[in-house]
Design a protein that fits this description.
By secondary structure, this protein is mainly β. Helix content is about 0%, strand content about 60%.
């Protein structure tokens, strides 16, 4: 049986609490890109433990696979007008 993932689309510069509980960040897909980075944290704010940083201007269609477990929530800071989709497991 394949694992099930939920998705969350984030569009534009924003700090977003994606999930308040533990889970797994499966991957991040870049739908559109901007000249600023994306930072992903284990926590409910940008003071949590950093899981990943995606550098500015990643190629459209890039898929970054993490399969990283987080314990305290999932918080994402998108620095520019990027549009990304996250796949998240419970």
């Amino acid at each position: 049986m394949y694992p099930r993932f939920n998705f969350k689309n984030l569009a534009g510069a924003a700090d977003t609490l994606v999930q308040k509980s533990r889970g797994t960040l499966h991957n991040v897909v870049i739908n559109t890109t901007a000249a600023s980075g994306i930072v992903i944290y284990d926590g409910t704010s940008n003071t949590g433990t950093k899981i990943a940083t995606i550098a500015a201007s990643p190629a459209i269609g890039s898929c970054f696979r993490y399969d990283a477990e987080f314990s305290n929530g999932l918080f994402v800071s998108v620095g520019g007008a990027s549009d990304i989709t996250l796949s998240i497991g419970a």
